Each structure stands twice: as structure tokens, then as C-alpha cells.
Amino acid sequence: MISQMLPVSQVKAANFTVEIISPATPGEVAASSMSFTAPAYDLAVHELRRDYSEDFQIRLTYLVNSSVVKSCDDAIANVDGMLAQYYYSRTTVSNLTVLAFPGCAKEGVSVARIAAGLNHLVMLGSYADIVFRDRELYPNVIQASAVMARPIISSISSFLAEYSWRTVYFVADTVGVSGFFAIVGSSTVASHLRAGKCTVYLDLVDSSLVAANPFVSLLNKIRKVARIVNFWGHALSLRKFMVYLFLDVYEYPTWLYGNATWQNFDKDDEDAFSAYQALFVISPTPTVTAHHAISTRERILQELVRRAKHDYGYSYLKNETPTPTVLSNYATLKILGEVLRPLLRDNSTSGSIDTAVLVRNIIDHTFNTTAGTFSFDSAGERIIPFDVKQLNTTTGGFDTVLRQNPKNLLRFLTVRQVIWRGGEPPLDEPICGFSGQIGPCADKGTDVALIAGVTVFGLGVIITAIIYYVLRDLARGIGRDVLFSSFDITSDLMMRRDSGRSLTMHNMIPRKSAIGFMLY
What is the chain's Cα-based Rg? Predict the structure, then answer.
């Protein structure tokens, strides 16, 4: 257990005390591990003491047992006991207790259950779970993660529904750490799409087989049954496959996933530039836009890098950036301070604040923090709209063409006209069918029909690539009537095996683990 209560110079001594309790996973076993998220909590608490010293005193306690907890599985098995042991043995009880949980798989559910019984606020910065939308069971949970299943799936489903695409071919590249994501994610999502009455195919490939390029025979199979390919795997494989529509779960490039640039300074740049003119990049709508705000966030990121090395012995690689998930944990405590001040200055509080009051002042509200803008819905879940972007051939960057409506995530708002290579979106199924022998092509030769019915991959493919971070228990259904009742997002897939650093592909070029929809 690590407790922090550093002295703070203040004009007036605040009588109201707040304790932040944070169950932590030591090391770098997951994206939410202490080496990544603790610097964010530390910095936030430092700023809260600086900015709110006249309103409250704050204490930060990490619950850590490095001899027992060495993995997410260990954290899940021990978090209940660790929390209970500390909670009932502490000698000082603050006016307000808040559980700030970065997240490690289903550990968050255990924490939330305990907090509900104790009537404490729970602020989740990394982990998210659909069960927390049940406000009867989890009335005190606020989910601020940068990665949420509902927004990701709504962006995918609404984009597919926009053009009536319902036949999907899943391709999962089994190589490397991204292969773990690919196998689990593709099979899970495919099963749910089938339940939603979509026609779904699934193939596993090994992109490391250079001598026998698996993509050649695979493309021949795909052309016979689908025009939309959902590709799951490492972005290096994705680039070999020349995928064209990319959904990035993060709003800015990070060391963990890289970016969607066509330029890799290799022999494929020219082909990639040509292919990416049909590329759509789907990424979260920027939460920080003004120049000074972006500069402020950059300073925060630099400070987090410094604290990670100085305080926790973790050194980011050159040009590595703490992820938006790290910033989300930082923002949760900043939001807490913003909500607390007016409540404490209201004389009716009488030195105590009910958790329900705190929750009411967070849900259905928007907060402009130095880490970005955070909006929450009525269930305490962060609202994350997405943008759809196309390549600007003059600048080489991507311009927004569609923006998800934050009030209705199943709809996109038009920012500017979408440009299609063929002048219009491809059909879900070719006019002559995948066989090339139905409809107007019924009496024509097979070769002519195939040319008429399918856009050849080398001439231009439209691909939808989606970074798969942590999806599980997705909705049964797709389109405007997509069901969100079974969505879940879990950090089971956030584990970085050997910190991801022993894998050659990961180390050579930090790129994205990706899932892609390829439209022929």
C-alpha cells in the first residue's frame, strides 16, 4: 500500500477531506498498469492540491501488493480482499471516499460492487463494461475511458448501414500480439453480426508466410462471396493487404498504435498513396482543437513521461506518447475537483456530500479539462463521437467528411461531400452477383460478368480498418436498430505480453493492431 498526503501551502486550511483509493497493478502487464496510469493520478492530485487547497484536502492511496499481484488475473483474484483489508483497517476516515480505478479486466466489476454497497463514487479511466449502465446495480459508477464499446460499434454499424452493407468477410491475421486480438475479436464480432442477420465469413491467416503469400488465395475466395472485408491484425499486415477504411479508437497517434499515414518511406509509398485516395479514416472527434489547448495537453503528456521514468522506473521510447487512456484517468480526478468546489461552497452541504449528488452533477454534463472535453450520458458513460476522414491529395493529410452526431451516434452529419472512386458507393452485392451469372449477366460469359460485377483489388479497394483494442460481448445486430444491451469492453485484450517489446514487428515500426472492412 502506498499513501500520499504531501503538505500543501494554502491560504486557508480546508476542513473537508477527500481520499482517493486506487487499486493498482504493478509493472507494465496491461495498458492500465501502474507504470502508465499512476503518473496521471499523481499529476492530477498535485494540481488539485494546488488549485483547490481552500476547498478540500486530498489524499491518494494506491492499493498495491507486488508479491501477490503480478498479472491481471492476480488482480481480479485479490482486489476484493485488498480493498476490504485496507478499508476496514484504516485509522483515518475522510469526509469523502472515491475509488479511482484504472482498470484490469473484470477487477473493475468487483470494485464497483463493493463501492455500491459502501455508497462510494467510482471513477473508471481505462476499464469499461456494459453492466455499469444498469444504474440500479451500479448507481455510483462513472466511465470515462477513451475506448468505449458503444461508440466504436455505433460508428461501425452506422457507417455500414449508411450504405446498406450487410455481407462481411472477416480476415484475422494470427501473427504477433495483434494476432491475439484478431482471433478473439473477429470470432466474437462475427458471431454477433450473424445474430444480427448479417452474412458473415471468417478466415484465419498467417501473414508471416512470405513464400506463400496467404493474401493472394484469400482475395480469390473473398471475391466470390463478399465486397466488404473486416480485417483484423497488425497494421504492417494491413498495409500489405492495402486496406482502405480505417477506424482509430484514439484521437491522436500513439506509440501503441501509430497512425494511418500512407507514407512509410518504403517502396510501397507510391502504391499506398494511390490506394489511400479511397481510404476513409474513422477516429474520435477531436476533444482538443484550439492551439493553446493542444499545447497545454502536450505539456501534460511530457510531464507524464517524466513522472513515469522518475517515479515508476518506466522509460517511454523516443517519440512515444502516453495514450488517451492515460489522459482519461488524469481527467477523472480533474472532473472530481471541478464538481466538488461549487458543492462545498454551497452552505447546504454542511460538511458532507452524498455520492448521489456527485453523480447527478457528472452525468448529462460536459467538462472542458486540460486533457480534453469529456461528456457523459445519463448512465454515466462517456460520449465519444467519431469522424470519417478522406485523404487530401494536396496536403497528404486527412480531411473530415462525416461527423457522428453526438446526440444520436447512429447517424453521421455531412461536413463535406464524400468522394467515391466509382462515383458512388459500391453495392453490398454486385449487380451480376458474386458468381457474375445472375441478373443482367445471366446470359453472358463468366469472365465478362466477373469484370462487370467486381472491382479488381489492384484497381482500388475501399477498406474499412478498425483498431480493435478491447471489444467483447458486442451488440446483437447492426445498423440503425443495433442493440446495445449486450455491449462490453474489457481490458482482457489490453494485456501487453512482455510489454510488447520482444516482438520484432512491434519494435520495428509502432503501428496499429487493426480490424478492417474492405469494400470491393
Answer: 24
What letters, b where the CB count within 10 A reaches 16 and e where it falls short, cover 224-237? eebbbbbbbbbbbb
| Residue 77: partners with Cβ closer than 8 Å, 6 or more residues away | none
**3-state secondary structure at position 76:** helix
294, 288 in Cβ contact below 8 A? yes
Distance of alpha carbon 46 from alpha carbon 31, whole angstroms:
23
Coil, strand or helix at 30: strand
C-alpha cell at 134: 444498469
pTM over 0.90: no
Task: Give yes or no on whether 2-147+288-375 and 150-287+385-519 have one common fold.
Answer: yes
End-to-end CA distance of the chain: 55
Q: Residue 287: left if φ>0, alpha if ψ -120 to 50, beta else—which one? A: alpha
Top-level CATH class of 150-287+385-519?
Answer: alpha beta
Burial label for 39, CB within 10 Å (0-12, 13-18, 19+), is: buried
How far, CA to CA in Å, does 152 sit from each of 147, 247, 409, 410, 416? 8, 9, 10, 11, 22
Strand duo 462-466 + 245-247: pairing: parallel
Instruction: Give φ, ψ of 381 to 5 degrees.
Output: -100, 135
The letter for the amino acid at 226 is A
Contact 353, 120 (CB under 8 A): no
pLDDT one-digit tens code per residue, 55-110? 999 999 999 888 888 887 888 888 888 888 998 898 889 999 999 988 665 667 77
Spans of all domains in the chain: 2-147+288-375, 150-287+385-519
420: which residues sit within 8 A by CB, 6+ positions away?
Answer: 426, 462
* CATH 3.20.20.70 applies to domain 2-147+288-375: no
Taking CB atoms within 8 Å and a gap of at least 24, the contacts of 504-510 are: 505/175, 505/176, 505/234, 505/236, 506/176, 506/177, 506/234, 509/236, 509/258, 509/264, 510/255, 510/256, 510/257, 510/258, 510/317, 510/320
The per-residue b/e assignment along 483-514, b for 16 or more CB within 10 angstroms, e otherwise, is bbeebbbbbbbbbbeeebeebebbeeebbbbb
Could you tell me how far CA 17 lies from the centroid of its own chain? 33
The amino acid occupying position 204 is L
8-state DSSP, 286: P
* CA distance linking residue 34 with residue 55, whole number of Å: 28
pLDDT tens track for 372-398 = 999 999 999 999 999 988 888 888 888
pLDDT interval class at 317 (50, 70, 90) = confident
